[in-house]
Amino acid sequence: MSKYSNQPATVEEVYQDMCDKIMNLQLKPGQKISENQMSDEYGVSRSVIRTVFTRLSQRRLIEVYPQRGTYISKIDLDFIADLLLLRTAIEKEVLYEILETMDGEKREEMVAQLRDNLEKQKEYYASEGYEMEFKSLDSEFHRILLDSVQRHNLMELMREHMIHIFRWRNFNVIFDHRVPELIEQHMMIYEAIHDNDLTRALRAMSEHLETISNMHDRAKAKYPEYFV
Prior knowledge:
Helix 1 (11-23) crosses helix 3 (46-58), helix 2 crosses helix 3 and helix 4 (77-100) crosses helix 6 (132-148). By secondary structure, the protein is mainly alpha-helical. Strand 2 (62-65) and strand 3 form a beta hairpin. It is 66% helix and 4% strand. It has a three-stranded antiparallel sheet. The chain contains eleven helices and three strands; from the N terminus they run H-E-H-H-E-E-H-H-H-H-H-H-H-H. The longest helix has 24 residues, at 77-100. The protein has two domains: 11-72, Arc Repressor Mutant, subunit A, CATH 1.10.10.10; 77-226, Four Helix Bundle (Hemerythrin (Met), subunit A) (Up-down Bundle), CATH 1.20.120.
């Protein structure tokens, strides 16, 4: 039965739901899907699904092969690496502005926000999964940095592609049970900012966001069907 059984789902509702399922690996990389299958699942016409599939294809989230079918896109680690490089450049620029141009009082307020966020993160230190509440705290930590220097629009420029980073993050955090490591890395970034140490902050951010090299071969060996 469709989750939208009380009324027909709109194109936008189906599109957003499928994006969420792809990002959270409920629709797995390489999985075959069809217009008929999705039409039945969402209780909508095939024309709605066709429109959704077009939008998903434009974002590189599905691959359509004539005579073969439609598949959830596999994870392209080279593409992810490029996106992470761009994100790292943005967040390093933010750290530079925080530590080189922000006045002391404003920085103290931001540091206090980061400290409060980290205290909440520590409640998930023993977590082996990647719970929604921790995901929100993880995102909030970075948003505090961006908002402190009014640079949220820089990340907005990457919004269409961030789903690929989030899908990879959902995979790699669970694959290597990385929640404790993420918390420790956030702590290192926080401490460097607190100590007004730009070099250490930049290094900590790079180590935090560069997530591919340490597990590239292991991930492909265990889940070859997930990767290009």
